[in-house]
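Bench notes, bay 3.
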Amino acid sequence: MFPDRRLGFIGFGPGGLPPVVKNLLLVNAAVYFLDYLFFRSTNAYGISMLAQTLGLTPILFWHGHIYQVVTYMFLHGGFMHILFNMFALWMFGSPLEMTWGSKRFLKFYFICGIGAGVLNVIITPMSQIPIVGASGAIYGLLLAFGMLYPNQVIYLYMLFPIKAKYFVMIIGGIELFVGLTNSHSGVAHFAHLGGMLFGLLYIKKDRWFRSFREGREEKRRRKNLRVVWNRDQEMEKLQREVDELLDKINQRGIGSLSQSEITRLREASRKLKEWEQQA
């Protein structure tokens, strides 16, 4: 389905699913069936008992239920919800884990998922309705895939070919538009955007930090160059003064120097000697 790095394509290969993607699929599926089999009773909003406890409820988060920014990622609101998320996890997560390695991929997944939850509770701090699902982390994976493989063709609805970079732009634009215009859709659109935002920050952080360090180093280098240049200029000026005073001594003798000229000669000679030792 995707280009493998060794053969020019990224595929899943004879080894099957990469380990982190495989385990995430299994854990999400297990939690979904556990919720379905043993916690089917719901409240007035149709939310299961397990989702009420482990889903991310903004008002509860601000009252100390911080763990919910992790647990909400493993709960889903229905079969189609988990089916879409797990399909996207398999589709986009597998090539990313193969490229990055399991440790970095898992870190990225949780950064996106937790970041998505944090953004949602910041935007809707008083909401009493829990959000559930891995969608925030999945949208982060989608963004990463679009950045790493911008020209990879994705078949939208299995029919329409579109390059990954354009697909990411369209999805992000839709989420932003719907999030701003339809706050009662029942979908945590800003959580999706949060996953993409934190994914972008994570991917770009090394480049931004490197640019920041390089900028500081360049600034320091230029400052050092200015210091050296100014010192060289001052040394040339002092050397000229010393040469003039020495010429005067050679021509007229030491007695021709005034007291201020003698003091100046001593000070200039001392500074020149110090700078030569530092060079």
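Next record in the batch:
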Amino acid sequence: MKLRIRGNTLRLRLTQPEVERFGATGRVEERIRFGPGERLTYTLEASDAVGHLAAHYEEGRIVVRVPAASARAWVESDEVSLEGAQPIEGDEALEILIEKDFQCLHKPPAEKEADAFPHPLAG
């Protein structure tokens, strides 16, 4: 699962096996280690407790929750993404985007991502 953060935008991209695992278990998790005892963990969870996409950060952990029904529909369809906005404060919002990861169109064939979804614009 790829994590992209830019300003108040949080984006998670999942490969085919990760989407399958998310559909089967309702959860996908990754982590990046910076050194001994230093890491950032990011998790995508399906949950009946939320009515919309929601993200939470605490002690080196980002958790993004998706309503279980929306997660199931996304996994079982050709739908590419789930998106939402979480109010922060004032007029600010955190934009949340969950996507199926497509193969890059501009990489040489030897570098294609085998686990990524076939790109719809590929020949």
